[in-house]
Amino acid sequence: MRPTVDRLFEAVIGLQATPSRKLRSATPQQWLDGLISLECSALGRVVQWATRVVHLSRGASASFTNEVQHSRHPRVERAPQSAYLLTVTCAQHGSASTMLQPCTLFPLGRPEGGIARAAEPRGHYCRRPDGTLTGEIVEAATASVWRSLPKTPLSYAKTVIEFAISECHRYGITSIQEASATTAYLHALRELEAENRLPLDISTHIVCAPGASTGESEASLAALINVADAFKSKHVHTGFVKFWLDGAPLPPNPTQCDLDANGKADPERVLVDYQKLLDRISAYDARNMTCKIHVAGEGSVRLALDVYEAVRKRNPSGPKHELAHCNAVHRDDIQRIARLGLTAEMSPAIWHAPVVQFAPHLLRWPFNEILATGAHMTIGSDWILTDNPSLFDPLAHLVEMLEVPRSGDREGLTKKQVAAHALCRMITLGGAEAVGRERMIGSIEVGKMANFIALDRDLSEGEFAGATVLKTWFEGRQVYSAVAGQVGI
Length: 489
Prior knowledge:
It is built from 13 helices and 18 strands. It is of the alpha/beta class and 489 residues long. Among the domains are: 120-149, no CATH class; 154-443, TIM Barrel (Alpha-Beta Barrel), CATH 3.20.20.140. The strands form five sheets. It has a seven-stranded parallel beta sheet with strand order 9-10-11-12-13-14-15. A four-stranded antiparallel beta sheet has the order 1-2-5-6, with no helix packed on it. A three-stranded antiparallel beta sheet has the order 16-17-18, with helices on one face. It is globular. The N and C termini lie far apart (63 Å). This is Amidohydrolase 3 domain-containing protein.
């Protein structure tokens, strides 16, 4: 259904914005004026981000409604004449793949020529029961919005990346996987590396498909992957590719791909079809590039496993690939993860958060079932969905319920200590193994990089809750201290 211009007022891309309480109770124009003038720090948490598309007209009035569960949306009283994108963007992800933008209004042109047109395939505009638009734009329908954004200056990108690096050091992180690398991101990393300002080991998963949320065409992204080696450096490792197979199982608009009545992936929720996925992954597998597939529903997991199985038949000795998230895996597919030699990346680290109550059947990471198969497992924060990249509190929740198969070297340890040892390995050496870096990082051994941290407790006892990083070292140099002014001492 073609959206009507006079109903489209606001589109929210990403997660919830977090303006102050004063702004939330203000009129729409007061809210807008106040939000534009906010400093990033005034949003409360710099690592949270929001991008809001606002349709304005001179003199247009609006009133807040509360018709849609989980969200508040303004309703336009008169049709807007022009479309604008309001960005109040801070750091996203562990390495800030969504770049820093100033608080600015960007004109997008007349609505009928921009995002107000019919939604692109596998995307939609959300509507109220009476047919009016709520303003939310879902999945591929966001593509035209992202393409309308001006190119992010590298100076902004570098500023955000440096902030993200400092946050990683604060929480004891010295290496990361960037799950949505783009052209601008890689250029920013290259400049930082050349300036000796990149004290973090980064494995960049360059997005292949779909490209809706990147602001780049799939042709541009494919070209970037083809020249990925040109961006390799001491701390940047570019032999990784990312696919988004479905959306997210989060309210109020879950878009994960479930299984249909025939046990197949629901074709209406698949963002990359089987043949395209098979062809692309086969090509990158032949180049020894690790592929990470975003899977958030049982249907997308099964489709991804089918593709990986076909790829392995073509090339039995290819690299270790990944399933990202693994929050919903059908019991018939759990054994296949180990059999295909895949990494089960368990993320986002929100299994202890209240949001899980909204979709317990979809947010039920099968840690114990996957561990029982012997499959390789890692844990990721997915910083876009958490206040900070720390894993300590999520691990505190896991350590009490994890069932780790016992072996001879664990005799005499309590069940909690066994689980703690397993979790510590997952977030250190296990992560290094997932990106093929275990010979250089992931443990303290002769010949490896001197990346390590000092904490206020022994995590091997399983007491993760509230753990504090005291100091962080990267390549033998102290890069963080909990005591102000002591970095480098």
